[in-house]
Every structure is written in C-alpha cells, then in structure tokens.
Amino acid sequence: MKRLLPILLALSLALAAPVAVARSTTMQEPLVVRVTGANGMPLDDGTTRATILAAAGESKWTVQAESAGRLELRKEIRGKHVVVVAAVYSAGEVRFDYVDSVNMNYRMRPSGTWSIHPNYMTWRGQLEDAVRSAATSR
Asked: How many C-beta atoms surround the C-beta of residue 99 within 10 A?
C-alpha cells in the first residue's frame, strides 16, 4: 500500500498538468484599432470616446475609471472572472491594454513571455470588433 500511494499521486499529477497548461495561452500585444465612420474618415477624439463607450456597453464592459485619452473598462463573467483593460485612444484609433484580471491565470512563463486564459484574448477581440462596428454606424 505504501508503494501504491506515490504511484497514484504521480499519475494524478501527470494527468492534471496538461489540463492546467491548456487553460492558458500566450498574451498577444494589443492591436491599434482604426476607428473610422461610415464615410471612411477617422473619428475625432470625442466621437472616438463615444464609440468606445457604446461598444463597451453593448459588450457588457463597464467604465471603472477615466482620464484624458484613457477609459478603464471592466468585465465580470459569472461572478468568477474579472478582466480590466485600458482603452487608450486618440482621434480615429484605440488600443486595449491589459490592466488587471482575477482568476484568469495571468502569469509569466519560464520563457519570459506572459500567458493568460484564452478567453481573455477572445473577450478583447470581441471588444475590438464591437468598436469597429459601432464606428461604422456613426
């Protein structure tokens, strides 16, 4: 019995390791999203801000803080996960930078790259798409 316990422990750890690794992906640098109206022209600062706010509201992000050229947006999912990004914007463009998260496996890998739960990349991408879509309706 004493021999069986270490073997079972090692086996359970070996089986659990791939599951833990599968729940994280390399953090991708944020893209600069071009914010152009229906006429193809870049939006001014105020309209860019309004477009970000409209897209955030539709995508269930809330404003946590605001300063000139920066909106801090928060998304809470099922009371379990929290993601905070900074929408850094100027006339006709916005970039969503990572600020903070809860329960999203955000960490530095031994290779020196940052990783996070794959859903973060999905939610950030959806927010970028929502901004593009909201801009074309202006």
From this structure: 14
- Picking from 106, 126, 127, 124, the residue whose alpha carbon sits closest to that of residue 26 is 106
Kindly report the backbone phi and psi dihedral angles of residue 126, in degrees, each rounded to the nearest multiple of 5, phi listed first.
-65, -40
Using alpha carbons, list the distances in angstroms from residue 109 to 13, 115, 123.
19, 7, 22
Identify the CA nearest to 51 among candidates 82, 84, 89: 89
Its pTM stands at 0.82
Q: Return the CATH number of the domain spanning residue range 24-136.
A: 3.30.310.80
CA dist list (Å): 17 to 27, 36, 51, 107, 117: 20, 45, 42, 16, 15
pLDDT in tens, 73-124: 999 999 999 999 999 999 999 999 999 999 999 999 999 999 999 999 999 9
Query: Could you tell me if 84 and 73 are in contact, meaning their C-beta atoms sit under 8 angstroms apart?
Result: yes
User: SS3 of 120, please?
Assistant: helix
